[in-house]
């Protein structure tokens, strides 16, 4: 019955607003607030949904109980593992962060941020999406500095799954607060001479460029020296992760005029084509594919031609593998880039225009 | 295909896709079926007639996840959403590589199944697990 009553409130909230019953809505808000200790998750989810409907309708300033009292009660509810509770609670917190962040102290928002980090690994897509949006609103509300400091600390100390969530969170902060607020701190972190920290930074950069897409065009030149260093590092994983970052950068800025930096990075990626580790070779091939899209197949073909007829079989195999993938991806565009060979006694290499039609 | 980065032994169907859009389970919802990326879904992943369970998409295959093959009988609702390729894969034309459905189980899943059945037989067959 409690659940159905809460569901009814969430349905009729809009109608009550139209009937100028805001005082009654405020009273219902207080009643629902007192029920936030509900033990049944289905009921609690509905109560949060009803509160969300009331907040949407009567606004942040007129809300009773006031937002500064409501939000601290929601923070522990974020720990609840029930999907309905999580989704409704995150939606409500997100709405408050979007419209009424100034009613709540920054310290409380920081607490909520670290509850939200856990939610980024939820199974349900709706929860993940709501978490991403809410995280963005909070970062915009309290500024990136405090959030970023703690996220970068997480990148060092947490176990793998949490580091992945932290990487996602860094990318969200970069998108909502512009990448120039995040990149200096992230690149500074790379100076720590420790493998895991540097790998974490490279992973973050890779996902960041994947996430921000064409926003990254202004920051290619800033991160190029860092990626140079990573691509000639002794550690395999550094080179693998850096190649992945290069791929996402190349695809994000394809056609936006960053070709000089990309060619420079390609010169660092290319020597890794002879790696034997399957993960590294996958990352390098993907990076070269990304470069094909961004620079055009002719550039990659010019790199390729040097090794197609190399005397060593192992070298030839690698180069032909790259050529085959190039041919599959851009067969038509390669025609203009094939080398012009002079006819010799036995072979005629020239192709008259008539041959195109015959 | 999705998980190909993490499981090299998965084989994809790769036949000519038809009009039917593939479906994925809750665990793979929101992920690109080619590279596992969670950002920027761009193009629906179309599957061949064989993997869609007939042209209309009404067969039992259409209720299965095209990445892990989870069906409606295997732990709740199977296919909950349409499958997509991310923008990067569309840019690199990986959405043109044929039907993305995974056609074999992969060693990780087979090993898990083998372990489950061997443990069950040690405990006294099927009956004791149903208690």
From TrEMBL, chain A:
Q: GO CC annotations? A: spliceosomal complex
Q: Which domain of life is it from?
A: Eukaryota
Segments forming domain Phosphatase PP2A regulatory subunit A/Splicing factor 3B subunit 1-like HEAT repeat? 140-212
Q: What biological-process terms (Gene Ontology) are attached? A: spliceosomal complex assembly
Kindly list the residue ranges recorded as spanning the membrane.
none
Q: Which keywords, in A-to-Z order, does the entry hold? A: mRNA processing, mRNA splicing, Nucleus, Repeat, Spliceosome
Q: Where in the cell is it found?
A: Nucleus
**Which InterPro entries would you find in this protein's record?**
ARM-like, ARM-type_fold, PP2A/SF3B1-like_HEAT, SF3b_su1-like
Q: What is its main location?
A: nucleus
One molecular function GO term is: mRNA binding
Q: Which PANTHER family match?
A: SPLICING FACTOR 3B, SUBUNIT 1-RELATED
Q: Which family does it belong to?
A: Belongs to the SF3B1 family.
Descriptive protein name: Os02g0146400 protein
Automatic annotation (TrEMBL), chain B:
Enumerate the InterPro entries for this protein: PHF5 (IPR005345)
- GO annotations under biological process? mRNA splicing, via spliceosome
Family to which the UniProt record says this protein belongs:
Belongs to the PHF5 family.
Question: This protein is called what?
Answer: Os11g0495400 protein
Return the PANTHER family for the record: PHD FINGER-LIKE DOMAIN-CONTAINING PROTEIN 5A
- Leader sequence segment: none
Q: Could you state one GO cellular component term attached to this entry? A: precatalytic spliceosome
């Amino acid at each position: 019955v409690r659940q159905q009553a809460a569901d009814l409130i969430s349905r009729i909230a809009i109608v009550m607003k139209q009937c100028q019953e805001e005082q009654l809505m405020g009273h219902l808000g207080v009643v629902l607030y007192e029920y936030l200790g509900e033990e049944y998750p289905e009921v609690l989810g509905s109560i949060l949904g009803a509160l969300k409907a009331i907040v949407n309708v009567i606004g942040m300033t007129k809300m009773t109980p006031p937002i500064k009292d409501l939000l601290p009660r929601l923070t522990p509810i974020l720990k609840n593992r029930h999907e309905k509770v999580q989704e409704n609670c995150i939606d409500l917190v997100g709405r408050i962060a979007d419209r009424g962040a100034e009613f709540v102290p920054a310290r409380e928002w920081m607490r909520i941020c670290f509850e939200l980090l856990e939610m980024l690994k939820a199974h349900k897509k709706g929860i993940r999406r709501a978490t991403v949006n809410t995280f963005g609103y909070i970062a915009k509300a309290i500024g990136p500095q405090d959030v970023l400091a703690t996220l970068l600390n997480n990148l060092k100390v947490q176990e793998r799954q949490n580091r992945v969530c932290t990487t996602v969170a860094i990318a969200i902060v970069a998108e909502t607060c512009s990448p120039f607020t995040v990149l200096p701190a992230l690149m500074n972190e790379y100076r720590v001479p420790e493998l895991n920290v540097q790998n974490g930074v490279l992973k973050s950069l890779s996902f960041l460029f994947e996430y921000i897409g064409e926003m990254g065009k202004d920051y290619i030149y800033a991160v190029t020296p860092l990626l140079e260093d990573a691509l000639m590092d002794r550690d395999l994983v550094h080179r693998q992760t850096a190649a992945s970052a290069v791929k996402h950068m190349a695809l994000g800025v394809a056609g936006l005029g960053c070709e000089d930096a990309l060619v420079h990075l390609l010169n660092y990626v290319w020597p890794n084509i002879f790696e034997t580790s399957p993960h590294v070779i996958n990352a390098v091939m993907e990076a070269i594919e990304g470069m094909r899209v961004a620079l055009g197949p002719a550039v990659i073909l010019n790199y390729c031609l040097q090794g197609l007829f190399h005397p060593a079989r192992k070298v030839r195999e690698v180069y032909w593998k790259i050529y085959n993938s190039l041919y599959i991806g851009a067969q038509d565009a390669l025609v203009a880039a094939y080398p012009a060979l002079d006819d010799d006694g036995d072979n005629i290499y020239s192709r008259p225009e008539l041959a195109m039609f015959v | 295909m999705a998980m190909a980065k993490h499981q090299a032994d998965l084989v994809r169907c790769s036949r000519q896709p038809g009009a039917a859009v593939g479906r994925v389970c809750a665990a793979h919802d929101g992920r690109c079926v080619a590279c596992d990326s969670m950002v920027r879904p761009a193009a629906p992943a179309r599957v061949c007639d064989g993997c869609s369970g007939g042209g209309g998409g009404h067969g039992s295959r259409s209720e299965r996840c095209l990445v892990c093959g989870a069906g409606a009988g295997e732990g709740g609702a199977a296919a909950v959403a349409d499958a997509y390729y991310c923008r990067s894969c569309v840019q690199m034309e990986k959405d043109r590589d044929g039907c993305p459905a995974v056609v074999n189980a992969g060693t990780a899943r087979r090993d898990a199944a083998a372990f489950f059945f061997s443990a069950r037989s040690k405990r006294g067959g099927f009956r004791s697990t149903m208690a």
